[in-house]
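Chapter summary example.
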Amino acid sequence: MARRAAIGLVVLATDQTIEHEWRRLLAVDGVALYESRLMNSSTITPETLKAMEGEIAGATGLILPGCRLDVVGYACTSGTMVIGEERVFELIRQARPGIACTTPITAALAGLLALGARRIALLTPYVDAINQMMRRYIEARGIAVTAMGSFNHEDDTEVARISPASIREAAIDLARNDAVDAVFVSCTSLRLAEQVEALERETGKPVTSSNHAMAWHALRLAGVADKLPDRGRLFRI
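The structure predicted for these 237 residues follows.
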């Protein structure tokens, strides 16, 4: 099943979305997905995000112990920013020394740069304190956030119930801004992957999300360079 790539994913206990989206995005012959779950609070605050740091190595170690993996992803966008990308990678490699790693924000930044986007619209489900932290994080890495919108939720179980239609309308509204090159929808609980192709046709601009970008990045890190149809511009790079 994994003759081309074996991809591991650490999923938050409260996440209802990423596995569903990744099954479609990683539907490539010879690519296999293996997952574990990490205990977390459903309340999204800097403090609860930071608390996940102690769980990452253990959750990684539960994924096919003793068997080959090519890449491991940690599936929390805001949590990665609070803990720090390099610290997340360090914790993953405590269980899987030397392995290629990714996170949603790592992948989104790589994907946006690959798309040539330097000014983005940022759509999140978060409260303002996390939104502003995310804006600073992205802009410190050379990409301007020129438009921003949020659903203002603090509970991850509520985020998973935000409808794809609401996400679509918000993304289209943000993409209308002339100062925007691309749209990034942050949070692994938001459902966007199945809409990317249609949104790009309607807006004329690249669109990606935490789950969408990280699936692309995991494939590329694993050496799977196929240009894949019906998954948006990013998957054709």
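To summarize the output: Residues 128-139 form the longest helix (12 residues).
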